[in-house]
C-alpha cells in the first residue's frame, strides 16, 4: 500500500484525496482530476504537469505497480501510463522538488521524480537514449505537458477502452474493457475533437500511425508539451524548472 512522506515534508495532496477522484485503468483522466484537485488545494498552475509515458511501439515495462505480474519478475507492461507531477515546496527549506502522485504505484506517496523513475523503470533502460536500445518496443519516452495545455487540449471519449462490438452482450450497448469512471468524458469545449489522446501519446514524430486524426484526416497539429526519450533529459528539464521557474 502507498505510504505518505515523513511529517517533515509538506505535500499538496494525500493518497486518500487522490484515490477518491480516480478510477482503475483510466490513468489519463485520473491525472486530470488529481491536477485539478491540487489547484483547488492551493498549488500554482505553473507547478502542475502531466507526464505521458509510452514508446513508439506502445509497450513499456514498469515495476512497482499495483498491476505488477509477480510471475514476470515483478514487472508489468503498459501500452502507456500517465502520471501527475507537482513541483512542491518542503518545510525544511523553500526549494521545490518534483513529486509524482501515482495512485497506481506501490512506492511511497508521493515519491520524488528521481525515486519514482529509478524504481519504476527497469535499470537496463536508465541513461540510454531510445535510439540506443535495440529492443525498440522498450523505449521509454516521456511527454511532459503543463496544466494549461492538458486542460485546453486533452479530450477523451474513451473509445480506446471499448470492447469490439462483437463482444457486446446487447446490440447497440457499448461495453468497455474496464468500468468507465462516473464522471463525464473529458472535453475542453464543444468545438474540441472528442478524442485527442493519440496526440498526447505521440512518441515518435516519424510514425504515421501516431498522427492525430481529425474527421478521418491526418492533422498537422503539433503535439503538446515536450518529448524526452532519455530519463536524464527528463530529470534535467525539471531541475531547470526548480532552479529557474521562468
Automatic annotation (TrEMBL):
Q: What is its EC number?
A: 3.5.1.122
Q: Does the keyword Phosphoprotein apply?
A: no
Indicate yes or no for the key word Hydrolase.
Answer: yes
Where on the tree of life does the source sit, at the highest rank?
Eukaryota
Keywords, ordered alphabetically:
Hydrolase
What the entry lists under InterPro entries is as follows: N_Gln_amidohydro_ab_roll_sf, NTAQ1, Prot_N_Gln_amidohydro_ab_roll
**What is catalyzed by this enzyme?**
N-terminal L-glutaminyl-[protein] + H2O = N-terminal L-glutamyl-[protein] + NH4(+)
Q: Could you state one GO cellular component term attached to this entry?
A: nucleus
Instruction: Using the UniProt record, name the top-level EC class of this enzyme in a single word.
Output: hydrolase
Q: Which GO terms describe its molecular function?
A: protein-N-terminal asparagine amidohydrolase activity; protein-N-terminal glutamine amidohydrolase activity
Q: In this protein, which residues make up the domain named Protein N-terminal glutamine amidohydrolase alpha beta roll?
A: 24-208
Q: Main role?
A: Mediates the side-chain deamidation of N-terminal glutamine residues to glutamate, an important step in N-end rule pathway of protein degradation. Conversion of the resulting N-terminal glutamine to glutamate renders the protein susceptible to arginylation, polyubiquitination and degradation as specified by the N-end rule. Does not act on substrates with internal or C-terminal glutamine and does not act on non-glutamine residues in any position.
**Sequence similarity:** Belongs to the NTAQ1 family.
Binding partners and assembly: Monomer.
Name under which the protein is recorded: Protein N-terminal glutamine amidohydrolase
Organism equals Chondrus crispus
Amino acid at each position: 500500500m502507498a505510504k505518505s512522506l515523513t511529517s517533515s515534508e509538506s505535500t499538496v495532496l494525500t493518497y486518500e484525496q487522490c484515490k477518491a477522484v480516480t478510477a482503475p485503468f483510466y490513468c489519463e483522466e485520473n491525472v486530470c482530476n488529481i491536477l485539478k484537485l491540487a489547484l483547488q488545494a492551493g498549488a500554482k498552475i505553473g507547478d502542475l504537469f502531466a507526464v505521458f509515458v509510452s514508446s513508439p511501439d506502445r509497450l513499456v515495462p514498469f515495476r512497482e505497480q499495483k498491476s505488477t505480474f509477480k510471475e514476470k519478475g515483478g514487472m508489468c507492461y503498459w501500452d502507456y501510463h500517465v502520471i501527475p507531477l507537482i513541483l512542491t515546496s518542503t518545510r525544511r527549506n523553500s526549494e521545490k522538488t518534483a513529486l509524482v502522485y501515482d495512485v497506481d504505484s506501490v512506492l511511497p506517496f508521493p515519491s520524488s521524480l528521481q525515486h519514482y523513475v529509478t524504481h519504476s523503470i527497469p535499470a537496463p533502460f536508465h541513461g540510454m537514449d531510445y535510439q540506443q536500445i535495440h529492443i525498440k518496443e522498450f523505449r521509454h519516452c516521456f511527454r511532459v505537458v503543463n496544466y494549461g495545455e492538458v486542460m485546453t487540449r486533452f479530450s477523451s471519449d474513451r473509445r480506446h477502452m471499448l470492447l469490439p462490438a462483437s463482444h457486446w452482450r446487447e446490440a447497440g450497448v457499448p461495453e468497455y474493457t474496464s468500468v468507465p469512471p462516473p464522471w463525464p468524458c473529458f472535453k475542453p469545449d464543444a468545438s474540441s475533437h472528442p478524442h485527442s489522446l493519440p496526440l498526447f501519446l505521440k512518441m515518435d514524430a516519424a510514425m504515421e500511425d501516431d498522427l492525430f486524426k481529425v474527421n478521418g484526416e491526418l492533422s498537422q497539429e503539433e503535439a503538446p508539451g515536450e518529448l524526452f526519450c532519455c530519463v536524464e533529459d527528463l530529470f534535467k528539464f525539471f531541475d531547470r524548472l526548480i532552479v529557474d521557474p521562468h
